[in-house]
Amino acid sequence: MTLTNRPRGTNDVGPGEIELWHQLEEKIRQVCSAFGYKELRTPIFEHTELFQRGIGEATDIVEKEMYTFMDRGQRSLTLRPEGTAPLVRAFVENRYGEGALPVKLYYLGPMFRYERPQAGRYRQFTQFGLEALGSADPLLDVEAIVLPLELYKACGLSGFQVEINTIGCPVCRPAYREELVKYFEPHADKLCGSCKNRLERNPLRLLDCKVEGCQEIMAGAPSITKHLCPECEEHFSQVLAYLDALGIEYKLNHRLVRGFDYYTKTVFEVTCSELGAQNAVGAGGRYDGLVEELGGKPTPAVGFAVGVERLLLALRGQEKAKAETAGPDAYIVHFGGETKQRAAQTAFFLRRRGLWVELDYLGRSIKAQMKAADRLGSRHVLIFGEDELSRGEAVLRDMKDGQEQKVDLQDLEQLAKILGECGQ
């Protein structure tokens, strides 16, 4: 370890890259606004029990991946590994459910999991998610699927596919769990270590295993569709009917489950071929029992989440991740001394009007300053020569066509107007 190396599984996002993030974040906010979702920001760390109870103690995240620590008051705290449980905690604590329903919220921020770093997966990663709380309407399930699809389309992403399933509810799932145990027990000696543990604690999670040997065994496992209660069967039927009515293509995947214990009924995943074997570019589902589990009133809910790094990786794979970069509105060239002082005054005046203005801080020659303006991609250079300055003027040069005009330094509002119109 050295002080100049970042921790494994983290990343720096700097100039040339951060512009992509800003563009994607703006698209996220635009799409969420169109669907009526409002942003919520929760603390980066929460009480550990929130995730133990919310996600499930038998999940990989809680057992292996959380960053947990004791504070000075000997309280166990955890850097948030996902966004749904904190949002639901905020929903309950702030009594959002006492207002108009459903409550539509989204979040965008850093999450933390101790995973093996790989392409698009970091130990600190950024997650975008949305949640609709307060209604069991199947149309909200569909909305949680369609909204991210609209985001992907707005970004130019293509080649994605929706996979969907239902995992039932506490009424019908126990019988299916028994069927899974009966099926997998004769194969227990052939299961991986994680699946052997899951067989005893959470057999539904066996269907989520990616180990080749386990996948071969699960190929013959029973499907939950034959064990659904009438309510779950009707709910899923309506979800599919709405998807059909909206022209949303999907693939039924009766082996699809989610890695969190709180899911009920509808679960879905969006995949993209650009991401290889680990091809998920977002997932979600319904979780009608989580609000009550965390201390609130019984409240149906549904949501979706996507890792921003994963989405950017998919966009790069299709060459759609291109930053729309622009240079300064003006670069002020000066000769030092009084010309530098007037350049500074002018620069600060223009900056206060929202214009991006740069000037030389290194005492470079005029030629070097012109080269610097060119490297930055400045639209104009504003030249403060001593002779022009004595007349209260400066020379404004268009860097694209080389045309020049004199501007009156006593009327900086007019100069700001010229630069602003050229930047539109």
Structure notes:
There is one protein chain. This protein is of the alpha+beta class. The chain is built from 15 helices and 16 strands. Strands 1-5-6-11-10-9-7-8 form an eight-stranded mixed sheet.
Strand content of the residues, in percent? 15-25%
Q: Find the count of extended strands (DSSP E, 2+ residues).
A: 16
Number of helices: 15
Query: Do you know the CATH architecture of the largest domain?
Result: 2-Layer Sandwich
Radius of gyration (CA) equals: 28 Å
**Which structural category fits the helices and strands?**
alpha+beta
Mean pLDDT: 91
Low-confidence stretches: none
How many structural domains are formed by the residues? 2
**Helicity level:** 25-40%
- Kindly report the spatial arrangement of strands forming the biggest sheet: 1-5-6-11-10-9-7-8
Please outline the major beta sheet. 8 strands, mixed
The name of the CATH superfamily of the largest domain reads Bira Bifunctional Protein, Domain 2
The first-level CATH class name of the largest domain:
Alpha Beta
3D shape: elongated
State the end-to-end CA separation: 48 Å
CATH topology of the largest domain: BirA Bifunctional Protein, domain 2
Features:
BirA Bifunctional Protein, domain 2, 15 helices, single chain, alpha+beta, 16 strands, five-stranded mixed β-sheet, eight-stranded mixed β-sheet, 2 domains, Rossmann fold, 424 residues
Short characterization:
The protein has 15 helices and 16 strands. With 424 residues, the protein is of the alpha+beta class.
